[in-house]
Structures are given as C-alpha cells and as structure tokens.
Design a protein that fits this description.
Blueprint: H1 20-34, H2 36-63, H3 66-82, H4 86-97, H5 104-135
Helix pairs in contact: 1-2, 1-5, 2-3, 2-5, 3-4, 4-5
Amino acid sequence: MEHAAGPPMPAGLPRATAPASECGMSLDTLAQDLGTDIMLAATRQFEQDAGVFVSRLSAAQEAGECAGVQKAAHGLKGLFRQFGVPDLAQVAESLNRNPAAGSPDTASAVRHIVAAAPAAIAGVLAYAEQLARAAR
C-alpha cells in the first residue's frame, strides 16, 4: 500500500529528531488508517509515555537499578521505533540488551537519551500537528 507524503518535518530540530521519511511514514500511515484525530491522540499519548519512561530511565540509572534501566529502555525502544525516532530507538535497544546501571557506557547512553528525547518528541508532535492541519 502506498502512502501519500505528508508535509516536511519542521526545520531546525536536532539530529536526534527523526527524518521526515521515517517519522512521516509512521504518522502518515496512522493518520490514513485511523484518521487524524486518533493519530493526534496517539501522538499526545506518545509524548506522555515517552516522558515518563525517560524520567524512569534517568532515576533507575542514578539509583544503579539494572532492572529499572532495562524496563524503561524497553519501553522507550518501542515508542521511539513506533513513532519514527530510530536513532534513539537504537540507543534504547542497546540499553535494553545490556542494562549495566552505573557503568560509564550506560551512563553515557542514558545522558544521550535524556538530552535528545525532548527535541525528538517535539519533532514528532510538530509533524503530527502539521499532518492534522494539512488534512483539514
């Protein structure tokens, strides 16, 4: 099934934000299959859920809780992949596979996600809102 390309991703977002082709395909498909209202609702839920998982990831790393790092990373991996943020999905997947809380590599990966996630999430939301405006 072919999907129409949506509007371009907003300019000026950091590299961690998904390229238009990846985020767009995901959200275009969701909007076409379920409608823009549901796509917007799902995207807003993504914003909330991703924020919670980022907070949990940071807290688990600080507390040295491997299971908490792994659980939060697993949630983020799925969310970032589903909503077209492959760079962060890949980092979260590596944490999910090797959640050595307290190690320098884990700490670096957690810092990267914590720093990059807000802009990536904002990019997904901005693109979803552009799709919704274009559909009206």
